[in-house]
Amino acid sequence: MTVKIGVIGTGMIGRDHTRRIQQVLAGAEVVALSDVNADSARAVQADLAPAATVHATGQELIAAPEVGAVLVTSWGDTHEEYVLAAIAAGKPCFCEKPLATTAAGAKRIVDAEVAHGARLVQVGFMRRYDAGYRMLKEAVDNAIGAPLMIHAAHRNPTVPEQYITPMAIHDTLIHEIDVFRWLLDDDYVSAQVVFPRRSKHAHARVADPQVVLLETRKGVRIDVEIFVNCRYGYDIQCQVVGEEGVAYLPEPLAIVMRRDAHLQNAILTDWKDRFVDSYDVELKDFVEAAARGTASGPGSWDGYVAAISSDACVEAQEKSGQIVPISLPDRPALYD
Ligand code: NAI
Ligand code: ISE
């Protein structure tokens, strides 16, 4: 069976996921496209999916009878309305992070899915599908004793002018927020944010770098450096300290060279390259579940918990130095 997919939002990642479905994965086909910028949808149609229909609105695409599953890759603040519409139509839906830009919005999605009675939503937390993080989880579960601390860093070479201080949480840290819950099988109880000396490369509206300190229910302490103007590359670091050892997230595969009196290897510069394989695997998972009329992997509950946790981190940015508590509601049985 071929899953017929409609893509809403044909910008950077919508185009890339369309390429993936059309050229990399088996079992699915992009049959519909939509973007508020119709030229963008038409360009993706021309380049990657000539047989797809371009719809005037995302809502029209979701309602189209030929669309069996929906990919939401538009801007974050538009995700909620499309995910709710896909659930109302009973169609499996892959939603890029964030599931919603507020915890209240994410809760409306959880409530709608619970009322539907079965999982339909996968959230684009692709790091859970990354081979390196999976190896790290295996080590955390079986090799280093109980985890006690995580030291991590999320560094981008540069960010555009529109990137402002809270986006360091909603847009960037959100990946760590999700992947550490999964890695530790735990949830957060508090957050604190402190600001080191500011980089001269940061533009006026972003405080950069930042250090986020998280504490979990089991007492694990996590420090994450977010540095989005680090200049030298796109670099994701993670070190888990356990009772009997320390486990490191593997570096991306790269040739080591001895050349011109230097020992060197290249560092990636674009986030698209760092997790390219995990995007393939997460969408494969989506396609396979959608063929069964459902969804698996990180879901609405994870998107909701990430939203609650990231709201607390933003509050902690605003009250820099103060510890902000994080409390979660009970998890509905659908997500056990
Ligand atoms: P982008 O700006 O390149 O593309 C977004 C597209 O959505 C634009 O073409 C825009 O015209 C369209 N759009 C905006 N509002 C719309 C609406 N109401 N209906 C239909 N289309 C609409 O942005 P990018 O980088 O592709 O990001 C899109 C989403 O993917 C964001 O939520 C972002 O956080 C997420 N993302 C996830 C990544 C990951 O590593 N998992 C990486 C990059 C982005
Ligand atoms: C971007 O939106 C992403 O989601 C990337 O995965 C992340 O690493 C980057 O920092 C974000 O800006």
**Numbering strands along the chain, what is their spatial order in the largest sheet?**
12-11-7-10-9-8-15
Helix segment count?
10
Query: Looking at the structure, what is the overall shape?
Result: globular
Query: Span between N and C termini?
Result: 29 Å
Mean pLDDT: 97
What is the CATH domain class of the largest domain? Answer: Alpha Beta
CATH superfamily of the largest domain: Dihydrodipicolinate Reductase, domain 2
Q: How large, in whole angstroms, is the Cα Rg?
A: 20 Å
Which hetero compounds are present in the coordinates? Answer: 1,4-dihydronicotinamide adenine dinucleotide, (2R,3S,4s,5R,6S)-2,3,4,5,6-pentahydroxycyclohexanone
The largest pleated sheet is described as: 7 strands, mixed
CATH topology descriptor of the largest domain: Dihydrodipicolinate Reductase, domain 2
